[in-house]
Amino acid sequence: MITPVPPASRDRRREADKEDAVASSDESTTAWALAARAGEPAAVERFVRALHPDVVRYVAHLSSDPQAADDLAQDTFLRALGSLHRFEGRSSARTWLLSIARRAVIDSYRYAAARPRLCGADDWSVAVEHAQPNGLPGFDDGVALLDKRREAFVLTQLIGLPYAEAAEASGCPVGTVRSRVARARATLIELLAEAEATPMAA
Fold first, then answer.
1. What is the C-alpha to C-alpha distance for residues 131 and 10, in angstroms, rounded to an integer?
2. Which range in 6-10, 50-54, 110-114, 198-202 is most confidently predicted, on average pLDDT?
3. 112: closest CA among 135, 136, 131?
4. Contacts (Cβ under 8 Å, ≥6 apart) of 82
5. What is the value of pTM for the model shown?
6. Which tens digits make up the pLDDT trace of 34-51?
7. Please, which contacts does 78-83 make with residues 24 or more away whose CB atoms are closer than 8 Å?
8. Coil, helix or strand at residue 2
């Protein structure tokens, strides 16, 4: 007699299969990164090609600017290839690269905030007042990422990193990543329910 698998078990099995697939691809990309560090040009190309989609997706979500994603991804790879000689393979190449991508996004916010902006208004003091954010914490508190729940969700659910590696990439404990993902899922469910309940305009 065949007994049906409970949905919770199926979800755990799917999660485990997903983590196994990520682990095998992480082993390959880490091996390519180490080979690239040793000076193999073909390994550099394979490393970049394998991780480029994940980096573009990650920086697009962190920056909330899909137009800037290609530039931020390019900056990430330039930084990574410049410091590849320091990569020792203690974490996966994907985790290492996504932590570099995170710093690239934060640095782009800092650069944009420090750069003077042109203003077409006659009264520049009014324009400056309107441009100032209200009640936001500093960059070190995470304003550059806008929403830490989104970062955790993107790393684990879209890019497919295991929770431990997502925690390492974002610089926080695993439990915090799990909590942020759970809150992000709850928010998404609420938003979807609201969207379904709202009647469409004719």
1. 50
2. 50-54
3. 131
4. none
5. 0.57
6. 999 998 989 999 999 999
7. 79/103, 79/104, 81/36, 81/44, 81/48
8. coil
